[in-house]
Specification:
The chain is an all-alpha fold and 228 residues long. Helix content is 61%, strand content 0%. It is built from 9 helices and no strands.
């Protein structure tokens, strides 16, 4: 079996096992968030300089980075020299990874239709909503809900770029997974998401990236430049 197929199968098995664990221990999210909550204060990490940086400045930086990537992709599609030096197929692979995982799956479907309230909005932490176990549809949130973490989903798309690296590929992959993990952990500490929101956001994204890589890139010889 192709190595990438084995990796995809492993991620699928991991997601299935995590789903079973979440159903078996439905209060795990509440337990973790309680350890981060301070009565009368809320989720303290949200009010730190780093927490504010993530919510404000980091999002602006990411927006600029995405804009620059799109400009680089356009240059590549026009046959001009690019900064990243990816092929047209490579740029398309990264864009599709983001659009499908963070755009369609995370924000378009799950966050809009899960109905699961965020930690900061449930009664246990001073809000009006009722806690919903992981992977359960609810009516406690109308829009931009807790399941899954869109920030984690977006951050894990760094894996798509890492898979296209021509040198030190393993290091880039490790860095991409680390970046996604940090984004997910940060959202949990801020009280914006439960632990499983970040875990499943990461798993769905990694799975999407790997499947697209298998279909679009794996086994194809990379072109010498950005032009196909």
């Amino acid at each position: 079996m192709n190595r990438m197929n084995l990796i995809i199968a492993g991620v699928l098995i991991g997601a299935a096992l995590l789903a079973e664990l979440a159903h078996a221990v439905p209060m795990v999210d509440l337990w973790v968030s309680r350890r981060l909550y301070v009565e009368g204060v809320g989720f303290p990490w949200q009010h730190t300089a780093l927490g504010q940086f993530i919510d404000n400045d980091l999002r602006r930086i990411v927006t600029v980075a995405v804009a620059l990537f799109l400009l680089d992709a356009v240059r590549g599609w026009l046959g001009r020299r690019t900064l990243l030096g990816l092929s047209k197929r490579g740029y398309l692979f990264v864009l599709l990874s983001v659009l499908i995982s963070a755009g369609l799956i995370a924000n378009g479907l799950l966050k809009e239709h899960s109905g699961r309230a965020r930690p900061k909005d449930i009664a246990e932490f001073g809000g009006p909503a009722v806690y919903t176990p992981p992977l359960t549809l609810a009516d406690q949130c109308d829009h931009n809900c807790s399941t899954v973490s869109g920030d984690a989903a977006f951050a894990f798309n760094a894996l798509a770029l890492a898979l296209l690296a021509r040198r030190r590929r393993a290091w880039w992959i490790g860095g991409a997974l680390g970046f996604g993990t940090l984004a997910g952990v940060a959202r949990v500490m801020q009280g914006k998401h439960f632990l499983t929101d970040s875990l499943f956001g990461g798993l769905f994204t990694v799975l999407t990236v790997l499947v697209l890589y298998r279909l679009m890139i794996d086994g194809r010889a990379p072109p010498p430049s950005s032009a196909d």
